[in-house]
Amino acid sequence: MDHSYETYLLSDDGVYPNNERLVVVVYQQVFIAEPSVDPDIIERQFNKNGWVNCWRNGIYREHHYHSSAHEVLGIYSGWIKTQLGGPDGKMVVAGAGDAIIIPAGVAHKNLDQSADFRVIGGYPQGQLWDMNFGKAGERPLADEKINNVPLPLKDPVFGTSGPIKTLWG
Questions:
Q1: I want to staple 76 with a disulfide (CB 3.0 to 4.6 A). Which of 4, 39, 43, 157 is the partner?
Q2: What is the pLDDT of residues 31-56, one digit of tens each?
Q3: Where are the beta strands (DSSP E) in the chain?
Q4: Sheet with 19-27, side-by-side order of all strands
Q5: What's the angle, vertex CA 51, arms to CA 147 and CA 6, rounded to 5?
Q6: For position 169, what pLDDT does the model report?
């Protein structure tokens, strides 16, 4: 597995808190894809590194964020164009073999996808995700929760040697 990645630090836009302390990490081709990846391989890797409660589905087509958990997305088929950070945020295209680590508070939305797009998601052990959509009344409680989400013990892909261990400190 390669350590090729991009990072994005996304600021509070007044509606979506995002996370001004922790970067989004996008691993490119971290899992070998020809043209897809066995989702069981991705799930085993996430679980081995303490990222559990995995699910398989898609990504919501509306901006949303989790204030109580960090999230990892492992793409095992197709591609997605996602927006990170809200309506004025960063657009990222990711495909089979890529993984996206989203810190608590960072808004994300599915803008477009291939017909065969499939993803597996997970959360660090002990973190239970919630759903927030940038609606009135979510904050300041969501901000407080985001600030109290502990750092994961391991990178979901690389374990103790992974980039988020350094990037998230």
A1: 39
A2: 987 778 899 999 999 999 999 999 99
A3: 5-10, 19-27, 51-57, 71-77, 79-84, 90-95, 99-102, 108-113, 118-124
A4: 5-10, 19-27, 99-102, 71-77, 118-124, 51-57
A5: 70
A6: 84
| pLDDT tens digits for range 73-106 | 999 999 999 999 999 999 999 999 999 999 999 9
- Domain residue spans of the chain: 5-164
Nearest to 101 by CA among 46, 44, 149, 40: 46
The CATH homologous superfamily for domain 5-164 is Jelly Rolls (2.60.120.10)
Q: For the chain, what percentages of helix, strand and coil (3-state, to nearest 5) are there?
A: 15, 35, 50
